[in-house]
Amino acid sequence: MKRLRVRVxxxxxxxxxxAGCAGRNTVDAASVPRRPAADAxxxxxxxxxxxxxxxxxxxxxxxxxxxxxxxxxTWHGRKSGVTGDIWAWVPPQYHQARYARSGFPVLIALPGxxxxxxxxxxxxxxxLEERIARWSRQGxxxxxxxxxxxxxxxxxxxxxxxxxxxxxxxxxxxxxxxxFARANFRTYDSRDGWAFMGSSxxxxxxxxxxxxxxxxxxxxxxxxxxxxxxxxxxxxYPDEMRANDPRHLARRLAAGHGLPVYLAFELGSREAAVPxxxxxxxxxxxxxxxxxxxxIPHGGHSGHTYIRRMxxxxxxxxxxxxxxxxxx
Length: 328
What we know:
It is built from eight helices and eleven strands. The chain is α/β, with parallel strands linked by helices. The radius of gyration is 18 Å and the shape is globular. The termini are far apart. The model is unreliable at 3-32 and 37-41 (pLDDT under 50).
């Protein structure tokens, strides 16, 4: 399940089918995402100005005709000790005068497969940034800052986790990458402003991060994910593996009446993982773990499948997150 295919040609098919789970929310993609009520943990989110140290960026690609660009830098994670590349993009609204004193929500976007040395969500094949710019203009999604780190150093799967004796990729994704965003951009001090999106192996990492750290992250878009840790590097560490198992984390969150989290699953109908993902949703969501499922007809295990419903998935989490607040 970890090898997510990437092809050059993109075929966007208009789809009308939404396969929702019982008791789950459905999506009306025509409505404008609303500002959420104050978060029970942190109160109303507050803008946090960039705190530095500022990164030195190089241009990676221009995104459409609105003057925005994907940029690239290398970041040393103080918590994990990992040094890796990060790509980033800010929406057009970020530079508008009316939002100059506002924070923006952050979407940490993770690729499938090894996710090294490149995070393909930064590229033109999927044009994620152009799509978010258009969707946010249309009021379908929030104007997210998109942060795209490498997922694994080298060609090894670390399950987005701190496996003993290995690079601390869990800390990289949930501590150091957010620190990078806070160092460089206007963000929010509340989990209302933080979400993940990932596919395949990145979907597993996104799912696990939100379930494990609900005080830091509120939502995730989870595409064709693994739902259990399966890196061979867990051998000899069963307790640590269980502590990074989304099934265990979801059960623990429910048992402890934890903070609500919101998971938008995308799944191609032809994926081998269909039964497993549906079983996870049935058995491990509910209570504080809210979910919705977008099953994409004739879709395979590919980012080109998931991008077809990304507007709906991002809309669903946008309704539960904090967007920028105009000052004039």
